[in-house]
Amino acid sequence: MEISAIKERLSLSEVLQHYCLQPKNNMLKCFMHDDKTASLQVNLEKNFYKCHSCGKTGDVIQFIEDYEKLTKHEAIKKAEGMINPASALKNTSLGDTGDFGQTKISSEKSACF
Question: Do 85 and 95 form a contact (C-beta atoms < 8 A)?
Fold first, then answer.
């Protein structure tokens, strides 16, 4: 999947939900430095974030890359998996075995509750 297609199909709101992050007034504590007060602003309409303390900015792919400390390639693959969980299972060592992978994805989604 091309990067532009990922950015069209995956919203920053969905990424934040995946990581159980709930902005308050579009602000979060920045995870890239020791943030005492919320300085990371998220623009959910434009799928963009900016930390007013450390200056880090980015889109959904950059957010995944920064949050999980991944390479750009790994972040793109992770984003693809968020859009299409079945494709993420094909990239695991279990392949298309189904049940275990679905359980893992289901538990990740419900981990916030």
Answer: no
pLDDT tens digits, one per residue of 63-104:
999 999 999 999 999 999 999 887 665 655 444 444 444 444
Amino acid, res. 16: L
Structure tokens at 32: 């890239």
Which pair of tokens denotes residue 57? 């900015």
* Angle between helical axes of 72-83 and 60-68 (0-180°, round to 10): 110
Q: For residues 88 and 85, give the distance between their C-alpha atoms in angstroms, rounded to a whole number.
A: 5
Q: What is the pTM of this model?
A: 0.78
The answer to whether 111 touches 101, Cβ cutoff 8 Å, is: no
Residue owning tokens 């943030």:
35
The residue segments making up the domain with residue 93 are 3-110
Q: Kindly report, residue by residue over 35-51, the tens digit of the pLDDT.
A: 999 999 999 999 999 99
CATH number for the domain harbouring residue 61? 3.90.580.10
Contact 12, 2 (CB under 8 A): no
